Each structure stands twice: as structure tokens, then as C-alpha cells.
Amino acid sequence: MGGKLSFTCINSYAIPTYRIMRHTLLSFIKDSSYVVIGAGLSLLCNYFFHFYVSRALGPKDYGVYNALLSFSLLLTLPFGAISLAVANETVRLEKEKISDYIRQLLFFNITFAVFLFVLLLINIKWISTFLHIDNPLLILITFLIPVISLFPSILIGVLQGLQFFKPYALVTTSVQLFRLVFGVILVILGLKVFGALLGTIFGAVAGLMLLLFFIRSYLSWPPFKRKGERIKQTIKKSLSYLGYTGAFFSLMYVDVPLVRHFFTAQETGFYSAAALLGKVPVYLIGSMGMVIFPKVVEMRRQNQAHFRFFTIALFIALVLLTIIAISYILLAKLVVKMLFGSAYIPAVPLVKHFGLSAIPLTLASVTVRYFIGIENRRFLYLVWLCALGFVVSFCLFHPMPDWAIWWLGLWSFLIIVSVFVGNLFFKD
Questions:
Q1: Distance from C-alpha of 114 to C-alpha of 126, rounded to nearest angstrom
Q2: To bridge 351 with a disulfide, which of 99, 137, 309, 332 should be the other Cys (CB 3.0-4.6 Å)?
Q3: Host domain of residue 114
């Protein structure tokens, strides 16, 4: 902060011993393994859930379910930024002050949840019309998903800040596992779309109970505290974090709508299947960014070599992504046939291309987490510029759907280059 990255790097390189760096890297590898395994198990549970529900409900009801679920997930996007801000604040707090901060968070969560639910109820008629769904019960249960998910989504930032990554992985996995179990049971019982949505709520509740168990030593009575200056600081930081994460996730998810706009429904179907598989490395290896973030915050606070640690972590991620890309090239046809059937064989080349494009896309995700961690938000506009550049490039030049993949990889690579070059030449 205040100075060029070259000077920042010199200060961050200076000082820690080999033993400290070695301990940090070993801790990073261990914690990353927990988070990556948890992300993998969560993806499997999510896949099996949709695999069953899509067949049990049929195309019409499954379409209704996906529309409602997508709407609810859209409302939860800010929660990730708030969770990052909570993790940042938790890292900086002394142990005895964390309990008081959690009490403030619980009060904030309840207040925000009530506000969100009332806001949705006021607009229920408009939302129902927009989604073309006349059943008010389905709309109400959809409203409850973001309201209840708010609690585990934000409080899990405490686990991240405390660097309790084994419990962190257990919580994220349990949310999807209980959703799978309860959702399938309720659909079997004949509740159809309502049961599938209710399963999502049960998953969030189970995750919250498990999360509260893991932070039980930090809970105190009374459980809520109204006054909290730290909450104001958390909200302020989360707004800036939302700019970064919003830019990156827009880059992640805008490709499918663009392909649908310029190509046929069948071509979009092949591309969507390839994207579902191709972006798996972003979720798996990109989850390492959840480990990097609090460690970088702590290392920066202690004047340790955070930039050196980051470059080594980035290299580890690159090695893992290269292995995955090679696996995609060799096994794409087998995986596509197993998961989607022979009808989706035309998606095989797209999956191979995605395996390569996922490398810069994932590294960009990790890089953005690092620069948020060191509170260098000057170049937020560069991330948005790259996201916009992807949209403009594909709109101007799209001879085939797979060009979306190549443009995605190129602009993700430019995100990495831009934040490094920008921080090298410009003051923060």
C-alpha cells in the first residue's frame, strides 16, 4: 500500500526465515487438500442430485425447478463477498474479540434476512409473473432459500478467517449431501418441485447447525449484539470485494447466454455440456483461493513474504491444472459418454478445449483472491475491462462456438497479466 509493487515485494520478501515459509507452504498444501476434496465431494453430490431430480421431475417440472433455483442463487451472489470480508476481519481480530464479532454477525444476519424476505414478499406478484409460475407456495419456498442460506454463507467466513479448513470442507460438503438426501426423499414422496426446493433449504439448515458446532467455543450469551462498528467495516469491504467477484463471475457465466444468442439450440446444448465439465477445474483448483486469501491477509499483517508464497501457490495450482488438462484431452470422449450419453459426442472437442482454457481462468480466480487479500483494489477496473473485452471479442468474432472458450482463456490470461503489470507500474 502506498508505493509500487516492486517495493511492496521487496518488503514482503525481506524478513521471514526459511522455516516460516516452509511451515506456511506445508500448511497451505494440507489446508488446500481439505478444501479441494470438499469441493469435489460437493460437486459430486450436486451432480447426483440433478441427475436424479431431472429424471424424476421430467423436462417441464425440472425447468420450473431450475428457474426458481437460479433466481434464488442470483440473490445469494453478494453473500460470497460478505463472507470474504468476514474472513478478512476475523484474521485481524484477537482471539478474545472473535466471540463479540460473531454476536454482531448473528444480529446482522437476522436483520438482513428479515429485510430480504419482506422485500421479496412485497414484489411477489411481479416475480411470479416474470417467472410465469402461478403457485404461490413455490414462490414462497424459493424466497426462503436465500434467506436461510444467508446464515451459513456468511458465517462460514469465520471458519475461513480462523483457518479451520477441515471443518470448512465438512460444512460445504454437508450442505450438498443433506440437500441430496432430503431432496431425493421428498421427491420420491411425491412433493416434486416443492420437495426439491425444500431439500435445498434442509441442506442449508444442516450446514448452519454443523457450522455453529465448529465455532461453539466462540459463541457466548446473549447470542446477539446490536451495536457493532466492525459490521460497518465488514459491509464496506464486502462492497469492494463484490466488484472483484462480480467481474470475475460475469466472465465465468456470460459465455453460455452468448453462445445461445449466436448459435442454434443444439449447438448451445453441446456447449453447455462441455462448459459443465470444463469449468470443474475452476471450482476444484480455484477453491485453493479460499485458503490463499486468509493466509495472505495474515502474512501481510505480520510483514511476511506473501508475494513469494503466492507465486509458489500459483505454481502448485498450475501443475495440478496441467495434469487435469491432459486428462481432459485423453479421457474427454469416455467422460462425455458416461455422463451425457452418445448423443453428446460432438461436445468432446469442446471439452478438450475447455481443459486448456480452464488453466488461465482458474489462475485468474486465484490471482484476484490474492490482490483482494493484500487490499490492493486499485485495479478493479482492469478486471471489469477484461470481462467486457471477452463479451466484445466474442460478439465481433465468433465463427464457431468453441471460439467462446478461446476468448475466455485469452481474457482470463490478460487478467493475470494486467494486475501484475498494473501493480508494477502504478501506485496503489
A1: 20
A2: 332
A3: 5-425
